[in-house]
Specification:
single chain, alpha/beta, Alkaline Phosphatase, subunit A, nine-stranded mixed sheet, two-stranded antiparallel ribbon, 17 strands, about 35% helix
Amino acid sequence: MREPQTNLMPSRREFLKNSYLGLGGLALADLLATDLGASVGSAENPLLPKRAHLPAKAKHCIFLFMEGGVSQMDTFEYRPLLDEYAGQQMPSVRGTDQDVESLGMAHNRVIPSPFSFAQYGQSGRWMSELLPQLSTCVDDMAFLHGVTVDSSNHGRAVYHTLTGQIFPGAAAIGAWMTYGLGTENQNLPGFIVLGQGAPEVGGASTWGSGFLPAAHQGTLFRLGSTPIANLDRRNGVSQQGQRSELDLLKWFNHRHLRQRSFTSELEARIAAYEVAFRMQTAAPELIDLSKESEATKKLYGLDDPVAGTFGRQCLMARRMVERGVRFVKLLHGKGKPWDQHGDLAGRLPVLCHEVDRPIAGLLKDLKARGLLEETLVVWASEMGRTPFDSNVVSDKPGRDHNRFGLVMWMAGGDVRPGTTFGQTDEFALRSAGKPLPVRDVHATLLRLMGLDQDQLAFLHAGRFKRLTDTGGRVIKEVLA
């Protein structure tokens, strides 16, 4: 007797059921792959290179930070209307709030720029006479006007610009980038800070890892022949002897680690010992500028006693990205040098002289070496300045804080050169159109490095934390 023929075609119900389970399996596989990709190196080496979320040319970032609040109408924004209102009360302060609104309604006087402007490059970019060298690079740069931060207070504005939050405790931009991408050179830190002294606002918390694993915090390189304290090997200890000591210490630390949870700081310390050991060889070669040509040193302004200090920082930054360091932050000056509440005409030229030639040299050197295409260079301050001065009796006027008028620029990588996004009003006080929050800039910087702001998240205290917090708009207008 013949067996009844089995129906090989599944029913509609079975087909949908199996398809649903199959999609679930694919989703699980994707989540596992994403999780594995995010934890390359694990506790043993959290800084191993990781795949970017999105295609991007830039592999490294140099972040130039001018603390104090750079005056936009004396550097990057030509506003001839200020001459017409010179010495008069600011006519109106629309669309502002907090300190800026109060100062604008109080007794004040409009201060025209004491510096002349001219157009440069094929892009016709207006630039101040204070930045003659940087003006020759405008066709490689993209400018962002009217960037807004959430406070006119230095501390909160600095934190907001550098960490995405107005209070300390959040992760710095460099920490996010090493968390998302790792770093290429395992003999040097992935996130390095070059400064001329402790910053007046925020200190080390402005390059901290916040809630991210501690291995992603920045490492401060000081000026001079010993950029990192206590890095040199002790007298009488050979490299082999020190390696043996570290291996024993590593064994004890890992035994201690296995018995505990929440061990981010311990994992970072273990990794730091290893990096420090390798840096004893890598760091001296890195900071030795003797093999750089005289032409290169001159390009960065090392022959200029005024520009030489920041010139060394810029040259060091190029050497770092050349050796695979992921993120380098340069802090200009000591204290809040760009905070000119008085004597604008006397102080601003000195500051611009200190940074003009070094930054132009950095851009030109990166471009000549073929490194600009893979290096994102960013200029920022924590805020802009007002077009008026609330001190109406001083014979050396300055400008007040303005959280609505920050100007930033970028160059390199997938940045569209010679472009401008955003525009401030006729007084350079605030955005003339839709506000440009700093989180949009952060989203754009991440995208230029191949990182998706939504995928770059960290679960902390029951909430997924992001650099852009609730999310920012990628400014596609400045992308190539």
